[in-house]
Amino acid sequence: MANLLLISTILLFFYALTCSATVYTVGDNSGWDISTDLDSWSRGKTFSVGDTLLFQYSQYHSVSELTKENYKGCNMTNALQSSSNGNTSFALSSPGDRYFACGNRLHCLGGMKLHVNVVGNAVASPIGAPQAAQPGGFNLPPGSSRTNNPSSSSVLNRIRVDSLVMAFFGVLVILFGVI
Ligand SMILES: [Cu+2]
Q: Which of 48, 113, 127, 128 could form a disulfide with 101 if both were Cys (CB 3.0 to 4.6 A apart)?
């Protein structure tokens, strides 16, 4: 009986840990392509620590992670990391901005680039601040920018998650220390 309880508790715990991790296929069915409207694709999505970006693309493309400055100018020298195997995953393992572009500079200049802001909460938030908000976007009025920096709230969320985990282990210790 205790074993069953232990197993189900552990399963529940791992489910809680993993259920919020999302694998985002960039561009969905259109994939990572020059014809994909990547701004529309990323708009309204909240990318969280633990999520993964999956880039699927043809032999004519590649994917490079760039610094913000190089991203702006589609400067492909000194890419942080690159791949051209057609099926590339990037783990969003820490909060902050990430910048990706096709390694073909002309494609990058043509819009084959993606900026995501990774927020540091493991708890899925339905009210994620949309990044890459365009004037005319449906979420924010023109002119409002990302002044609601997610870093402070994400720290709070992180603390909340940590204390939840601590509380969980506390309950486990009490539960199985008593039995
Ligand atoms: Cu390309």
A: 113
